[in-house]
């Protein structure tokens, strides 16, 4: 019986690493609007060619806050941390969280409950994660709302 309790504790402690323990920080959360072309944009690690392509894609969409987005995507994480950018569809959310499970980092919007939207709104969420808490090449995903 004691062995089962220890295993259960290890499984629970390993789930959602980063949540609530200082490993994950939301650095930027900004609304992008509902412009065509925001759907399906790939998440990217800051400082990579993918992040530069994400910035170019957002500029082509003609968002209303390109300077804010450019600054957010140019953010250099502090030493010992890595940064990741996600464009997430939603409605009227006011925040985001990042879940780290195994080799997958998943962004999910938070807040904005009980609001009906006729069209999707998109948000840019940028997180930093302790370098040692994630694999060298994590899978990046978003949870649809």
List keywords for this structure.
23% helix; 145 residues; alpha+beta; four-stranded antiparallel beta sheet; disordered N terminus
User: What strand order characterises the main sheet?
Assistant: 1-6-3-2
State Rg. Answer: 17 Å
Shape: globular
The total beta strand count reads 7
Q: What is the SS-derived class?
A: alpha+beta
Q: How would you portray this structure in words?
A:
α2 runs antiparallel to α3. It contains three helices and seven strands, in the order αββααβββββ. Mean pLDDT is 84; it is low at 1-21. The strands form two sheets. Strands 1-6-3-2 form a four-stranded antiparallel β-sheet. A three-stranded mixed β-sheet has the order 4-5-7, with no helix packed on it. The chain is of the alpha+beta class and 145 residues long. It starts with a helix and ends with a strand. It is globular. The protein has helices at 2-14, 49-61, 66-73; strands spanning 24-33, 44-45, 81-90, 95-101, 104-110, 121-130, 139-142. β4 (95-101) and β5 form a beta hairpin.
Describe, in short, the structure shown.
With 145 residues, this protein is α+β, with helices and mostly antiparallel strands.
SSE diagram, text form:
Layout: H1 2-14, E1 24-33, E2 44-45, H2 49-61, H3 66-73, E3 81-90, E4 95-101, E5 104-110, E6 121-130, E7 139-142
């Amino acid at each position: 019986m004691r062995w089962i309790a220890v295993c259960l504790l290890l499984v629970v402690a390993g789930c959602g690493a980063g949540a609530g323990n200082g490993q994950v920080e939301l650095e930027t959360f900004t609304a992008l609007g509902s412009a065509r072309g925001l759907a399906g944009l790939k998440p990217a690690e800051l400082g990579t060619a993918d992040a530069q392509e994400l910035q170019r894609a957002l500029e082509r969409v003609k968002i209303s806050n390109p300077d804010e987005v450019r600054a957010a995507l140019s953010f250099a994480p502090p030493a010992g941390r890595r940064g990741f950018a996600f464009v997430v569809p939603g409605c009227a959310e006011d925040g985001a969280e990042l879940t780290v499970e195994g080799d997958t980092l998943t962004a999910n919007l938070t807040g904005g409950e009980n609001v009906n939207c006729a069209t999707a709104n998109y948000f840019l969420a940028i997180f930093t994660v302790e370098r040692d808490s994630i694999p060298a090449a994590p899978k990046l995903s978003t949870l649809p709302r």
